[in-house]
Task: inverse folding
């Protein structure tokens, strides 16, 4: 039974009954009512299936006049497609006769040859003169095209969601999941259907619960998406890190909640942890190198006062064995020994202060102060190599944010390299200049020597740790210095001087200074 009819249902229309039961409209008005319908109406003879009458809407839709329509058969006004052959049309109309009503989708053809799909309903009606079939139909081609487009779009969207690596969840204010994409289930290690009704908060680790609760606390349709990181437990007992974007949505009361997009960042988090371990190791190397440099300098510097103190004490001891030694001679020897020991103590105190600073983290500090702290040790190395040091720095602080001790280690390394470079030149030519200054957005440190320059160094390899000009050098000093500066959002570079030698320069971003707080940086 095409379209599914209603068995035993027939419509009986009698002019006399209409006239007696309905005071308005008049019987003659029913033709006018039929003509005013926007639905197309065809009246077929129930026995022969011939067209008896059509309203104006049907004539307009098909492009025929009523007189032209009456002799037409199904092939004359239907598509040539076998699905719409005459026998099927006749069966549909007969089905309405047998069961009262029958529905079908029929491809009509107009007088101009245009074919259009229609939804057609055939109803059996018992008129006084004869039984007829009233066919009501309307053009649904645009609707079908729209439906087809929607189905195609939905299919594409479903395919897109199936192949999308990012998981999609919709949760309410209590974090209960009302929708989960296939990828969302895969991300969380389960089927998407099993996530429905589950509280996302219950899957998060304790720290991540607080983060998610805060994101869900104040839903607002026009708010910007909130980005966060969540550590979520999977059914197999493992945990994974996810980057999440939360956005409140309200789709005409059909879908309301917070849209959560998830993508697995476990590898990224693991890499960041490894990077932090690498930075900790970098800090260790910086401290280790700093201590090594200081130990060598201090060992050399302590040798002189301790040797002198030993000589004075030994001299005093010899004089004590001589009965004729005056008290003045003894006091002279002991006083000088005390002075030398005091000098050694000052050197040790300087080293102790430096070691204490090794544990300090990033802070805002005057670049000139870092240079000043390093000058003592720079001068030690300079005296060892009989090198003149010139320092050019202004009286205005150059506030930068950095790790003070590691930055100081870079200054020491660059200055020691410059001094070591000058040690191979005649004493009168051993000259190193240290300069600090500020640009619009950076604090700059530069050390320049008058050595042989950079021409002998392979291009691009000066900071890669693979090159050193020292016979006993490892080459890691410049590489380490480069990493220390660049990881603080700075830049370190080397260049030839115009006259002779090379300059090594680094710059670090300036920090903001609060002028209302006695010049303290903030």
Result:
């Amino acid at each position: 039974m095409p379209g599914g009819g209603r068995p035993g249902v027939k419509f009986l229309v009698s002019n006399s009954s209409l006239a007696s039961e309905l005071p308005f409209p008049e019987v003659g008005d029913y033709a006018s009512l039929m003509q005013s319908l926007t639905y197309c109406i065809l009246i077929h003879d129930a026995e022969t299936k011939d067209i008896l009458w059509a309203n104006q809407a049907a004539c307009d839709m098909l492009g025929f006049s009523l007189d032209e329509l009456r002799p037409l058969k199904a092939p004359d006004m239907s598509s040539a497609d076998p699905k719409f052959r005459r026998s099927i049309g006749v069966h549909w109309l007969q089905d309405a006769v047998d069961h009262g009503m029958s529905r079908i989708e029929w491809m009509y053809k107009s007088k101009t040859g245009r074919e259009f799909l229609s939804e057609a309903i055939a109803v059996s009606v018992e008129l006084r003169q004869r039984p007829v079939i009233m066919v009501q139909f309307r053009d649904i081609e645009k609707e079908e095209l729209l439906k087809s487009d929607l189905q195609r779009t939905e299919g594409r969207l479903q395919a897109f969601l199936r192949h999308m690596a990012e998981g999609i969840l919709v949760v309410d204010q209590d974090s209960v999941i009302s929708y989960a994409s296939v990828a969302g289930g895969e991300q969380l290690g389960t089927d998407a259907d099993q996530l429905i009704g589950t509280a996302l908060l219950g899957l998060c680790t304790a720290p991540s619960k607080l983060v998610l609760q805060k994101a869900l606390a104040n839903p607002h349709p026009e708010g910007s998406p909130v980005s966060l990181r969540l550590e979520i437990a999977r059914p197999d007992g493992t945990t994974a890190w996810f980057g999440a974007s939360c956005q409140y949505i309200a789709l005409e009361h059909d879908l309301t909640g917070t849209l959560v997009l998830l993508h697995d960042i476990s590898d990224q988090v693991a890499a960041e942890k490894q990077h932090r371990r690498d930075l900790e190791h970098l800090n260790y190397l910086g401290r280790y190198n700093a201590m090594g440099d200081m130990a060598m300098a201090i060992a050399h510097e302590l040798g002189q006062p301790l040797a002198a103190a030993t000589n004075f004490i030994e001299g005093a001891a010899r004089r004590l064995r001589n009965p004729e030694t005056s008290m003045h001679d003894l006091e002279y020897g002991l006083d000088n020994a005390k002075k030398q020991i005091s000098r050694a103590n000052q050197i040790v105190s300087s080293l102790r202060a430096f070691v204490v600073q090794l544990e300090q983290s990033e802070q805002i500090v005057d670049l000139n102060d870092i240079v000043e702290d390093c000058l003592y040790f720079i001068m030690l190395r300079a005296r060892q190599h009989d090198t003149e040091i010139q320092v050019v720095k202004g009286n205005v602080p150059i506030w930068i944010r950095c790790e003070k001790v590691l930055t100081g280690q870079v200054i020491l390394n660059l200055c020691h390299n410059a001094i070591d470079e000058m040690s191979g030149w005649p004493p009168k030519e051993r000259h190193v200049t240290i300069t600090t200054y500020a640009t619009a957005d950076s604090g700059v440190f530069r050390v320049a020597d008058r050595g042989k320059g950079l021409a002998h160094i392979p291009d691009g390899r000066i900071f890669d740790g693979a090159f050193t000009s020292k016979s006993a050098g490892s080459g890691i000093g410049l590489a380490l210095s480069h990493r220390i500066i660049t990881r603080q959002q700075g830049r370190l570079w080397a260049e030839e001087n115009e006259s002779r030698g090379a300059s090594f320069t680094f710059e670090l971003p300036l920090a903001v200074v609060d002028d209302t707080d006695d010049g303290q940086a903030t």
